[in-house]
Amino acid sequence: MKEQVLPPPGPPTIDCSYIEAARGRVAEMRAWKPETLDPPSVPELEAMLGQPITRCDSIGENWRNRVYRIGLENGATALAKQVIMGTGEMLQYQHDQLLGLAKLNISGLRVPKPLGLMREKRVLIMEFARGETIQALVWNRRRERELMQACELAGKILGQIEIARTEKIGAMPVKELARDLAIARWSLTKRQQTLLSQAFARLAGVNVRVGEVYYDYKPANLIFADDQISLIDPPDIFRRGVLLWDFACFRSSMRRHLWRLSLRWPDQRRRALIHQSLAGFERSYLSKVGQPYLEPALFATALQLLELQRTAVLMTMQQGKVELAQLGRPIALGKRLGSSLANRLTLPLLEVEKHWLFRQLARIRF
């Protein structure tokens, strides 16, 4: 692999302050100004990859990245991701994440191999991951068996990643979590505030696995093919926190897809299949990581709090995108922030999810 020399990475560490980090990201988006960042040219890509290119197609662009699909003369396909909003250190971290995940040698996990780095244009080139995302499988009625297989495998892989990344078994960071949830841009009833306080009190002193969080372990980032899962969109910054966060991230994302699907196709059989797939994900995850430090009620409480935090992060980002579009900020031009209508419609769904999570929290019995 060819690469340009980058300085030693020095990304900041986020210790459970994910809502605060999301607010900081929105502030960066608000202050963002267009810059001249030319796409990678074919000669540059050929020099980096060491072979001729047959085609280079743009397959997507948002406020963070431009993505290109590259056809190589030897018949292989590569993917190039150009970071629009970010730094060389973030690019280096993504590169290192791919190498680190591959070294775990987890059965069923396929990590795209990094093929090159272009510092000046902030481009990371890697192998192209073929297959279908778990998110796409949720909506594909003809691939029900594959959905269940993919979710079960995703649970097994996550459990093994969590074991490998466990730095310590330590106390649940209740104060940090409470401080982060306190700055969420939402309104809570007195009953909801009480439920939060009770949950924090129950989890004080409870031991959990702490270590490097993958952060975005969600169905859209997991590609399934040939009984393997490829992880795409690796994290660009180091985050240390409760490793159960990644489990909560996958579960909450699947639930939102289930709700959207139910609104479009009120099919009870399909709903049951997705519930079975989620149950398979949880069983396979626990078969690898177990619950040695949390009894079921405490496990459920910790999970609900992390899912609430995840919902608050998404609400922060969606509210920011809507406001930036309304203000006509440069970053909102050209649909970089996605569909304005979809962003507005997502907010009520997240509000519903918030209330649903609090109801689940209230039903936990000790």
Question: What are its keywords?
Answer:
366 residues; alpha+beta; Phosphorylase Kinase, domain 1; Aminoglycoside 3'-phosphotransferase, Chain: A, domain 2; six-stranded mixed beta sheet; four-stranded mixed beta sheet
Polypeptide structure, described:
This protein folds into 2 domains: 11-26 and 35-127, Phosphorylase Kinase, domain 1; 132-363, Alpha-Beta Complex (Aminoglycoside 3'-phosphotransferase, Chain: A, domain 2). The protein contains 11 helices and 14 strands. The protein has helices at 18-31, 42-49, 88-103, 134-139, 144-165, 174-182, 190-203, 244-264, 268-289, 296-327, 340-363, and strands at 2-3, 14-15, 53-61, 65-72, 77-83, 109-110, 114-118, 123-127, 132-133, 166-171, 207-212, 222-225, 228-231, 239-242. Helix 5 (144-165) runs parallel beside helix 9 (268-289), helix 8 runs antiparallel to helix 9 (268-289) and helix 10 packs antiparallel against helix 11 (340-363). The chain is globular. The termini are far apart. The relative contact order is 0.14. Mean pLDDT is 91; it is low at 1-12.
